[in-house]
Amino acid sequence: MRVGCPKEIKNHEYRVGLTPGAVREYVAHGHEVIIQSGAGTGIGADDGAYQAAGARVVKTAEEVFQQSDMIVKVKEPQPSEWAQLREGQLLYTYLHLAPDPEQTKGLLASGVTAIAYETVTDDRGGLPLLAPMSEVAGRLAIQAGATALQKANGGRGLLLGGVPGVLPGKVTIIGGGVVGINSAMMAVGLGADVVIIDRSIPRLRQLDELFRGRIHTRFSTIEALEEEVFSADVVVGAVLIPGAAAPKLVTREMLSGMKKGAVVVDVAIDQGGCFETSHPTTHSEPTYEIDGIIHYCVANMPGAVPVTSAHALNNATLHYGLQLADRGVKALIDNPHLRNGLNVHKGRITNRPVAEALGLDMVEAKTILAA
Question: DSSP label at 281?
Answer without folding.
Answer: B
